[in-house]
Design brief:
The protein has about 425 residues and is of the alpha/beta class. Helix content is about 40%, strand content about 15%. The protein is built from 14 helices and 13 strands. The strands form four sheets. A four-stranded parallel β-sheet has the order 7-6-8-9, sandwiched between helices. Strands 10, 11, 12 and 13 form a four-stranded antiparallel β-sheet that branches. Helix 9 links the parallel strand 8 and strand 9. Helix 1 runs parallel beside helix 4, helix 3 runs parallel beside helix 4 and helix 8 crosses helix 9. The longest helix is centred in the first third of the chain and has 28 residues. It starts with a helix and ends in a 5-residue tail after the last helix.
């Protein structure tokens, strides 16, 4: 898959920094890294011992995407819970969180700090397409695992030049396919207006959506983009309303998702079916708009909503709520971003358990050889699978509709691998 503008810009923004320090950094790394013996001889053991595993995560705890910062609380709560039960294979997890403010240059600084000063075993979770694109060249050059990045850009699974980086959540093209399938079946003559973020995230989902609609009667009749630095999307929403489209596809991050939902609710003359992408579907995004104003909004998901009564007695959800209360008392268990953090941390636990060697190379290989791995927080029918030629762990999603004060699942899980074939470069 061709790298698009944001990936190239991120690389350019960090090239000078990486070039200027490459030699000294490499000498420092050679001195700091430790290696295994025996069957795993020569493989990197920096950040992992018989008793501990050091992990680092980079999140926007501040800035325009700060709503995502709470994911780190779900991750931290999971690791603290596991540590209380003896750790992962007897190893206590030390999880260090850094704030990049959703700024790629800052993400590079924090990645270097985690690798060269904190000496982490892996940089688990870099959030956002721009930040992840800014650091993956550096982390792959240093041969530091970057597993389960918190972004659904399809490049994380289709690129073959960065073996140390891997996504986790369904990629944006897969998500787009689910919405396209739904519209082709339920509104085969739909006219769609699209609001999208002007970066690889937005363009990836929009491109996948258009491709999945090819040959159908569903047409994209209007599209408006916004920048993450924009104060609002009111002008874009006003323009889209003039299209009179009967469907609005909302490809946004939380701040702008709330704005788009509010603008839609305010415009009583335009009442499209509003589809909001998964990354802006948390109740925390909808609540400021007023639940009465978002009734019938559609999205898709792949993990259990802790606010959904059907999971009230689910063992994993009960464990999650109890652990979050104990280890992150200021975090709302009903916030889906916290549940996301728990689910992805649990997934990493599975990968760490599957390592043939307790090394960085061992983790790199383990995340690329997952065979229908079950994770308690994922929806029934959703598992982790990777292998040669397929580096997308999750490709199954289920539609949901907002009703009352929560999302309600409907239809059956859609395995996009089976429905549309594997995603290629």
């Amino acid at each position: 898959m061709r790298k698009t503008t944001v990936l190239r810009a991120a690389a350019a923004a960090t090239a000078a920094l990486l070039t200027a320090t490459a030699c000294s950094s490499q000498r420092g790394q050679d001195a700091q890294n430790t290696a295994a013996d025996g069957a795993c001889k020569g493989q990197q053991t920096t950040g992992i011992t018989d008793k501990t595993i050091k992990l680092g995560g980079i999140y926007p705890l501040s800035g325009p995407a700060s709503a995502y910062g709470t994911i780190s609380k779900g991750v931290a709560a999971y690791f603290k819970y596991v540590n209380g039960k003896g750790g992962i294979d007897g190893r206590t997890v030390e999880f260090t969180v850094r704030d990049d403010g959703y700024q790629p240059p800052k993400a590079v600084e924090e990645a270097r700090r985690l690798v060269e000063q904190e000496k982490v075993f892996a940089v688990f979770q870099t959030l956002g397409t721009p930040s992840t694109a800014a650091v993956w060249d550096y982390l792959n050059k240093q041969k530091v695992p970057q597993p389960f990045v918190a972004t659904g850009a399809s490049v994380w699974g289709s690129d073959d030049k960065h073996p140390w980086t891997l996504g986790w959540q369904p990629n944006y093209v897969a998500e787009a396919r689910v919405y396209a399938k739904y519209l082709k079946e339920e509104k085969p003559k739909a006219q769609v207006a699209v609001l999208y973020q002007n970066d690889d995230f937005g363009k990836d989902l929009l491109g996948g959506f258009k491709k999945a609609l090819a040959g159908s009667g569903v047409k994209v009749v209007a599209a408006e983009s916004y920048e993450v630095t924009d104060p609002s999307v009111s002008a874009q929403m006003a323009s889209l309303a003039r299209s009179k489209a009967d469907v609005l596809l909302d490809i946004t991050t939380p701040k702008f998702g709330s704005q788009a939902l509010a603008a839609d609710a305010k415009d009583t003359k335009w009442n499209p079916l509003h589809i909001v992408n998964n990354v802006a579907s948390s109740a925390a995004v909808l609540r400021p708009v007023g639940f009465k104003n978002v009734q019938g909004v559609v999205s898709a998901t792949y993990f259990k909503d802790p606010a959904d009564p059907q999971w009230a007695n689910d063992p994993e959800v009960k464990t999650y709520k109890k652990a979050l209360h104990a280890y992150a008392p200021d975090a709302d268990p009903a916030n889906q971003f916290n549940a996301y953090g728990w689910a992805v941390a649990s997934s990493l636990h599975q990968a760490l358990d599957a390592m043939k060697c307790p090394t960085r190379e061992g983790l790199r290989d383990a995340v690329r050889d997952l065979k229908d791995v079950k994770v308690g927080m994922l929806l029934p029918g959703v598992t982790l699978s990777t292998g040669p030629g397929d580096a997308f762990p999750i490709e199954t999603m289920q539609l949901m509709r907002f009703k009352g004060e929560r999302w309600q699942l409907f239809g059956k899980p859609v395995d996009t691998r089976k429905e549309f074939g594997p995603l290629t470069k």
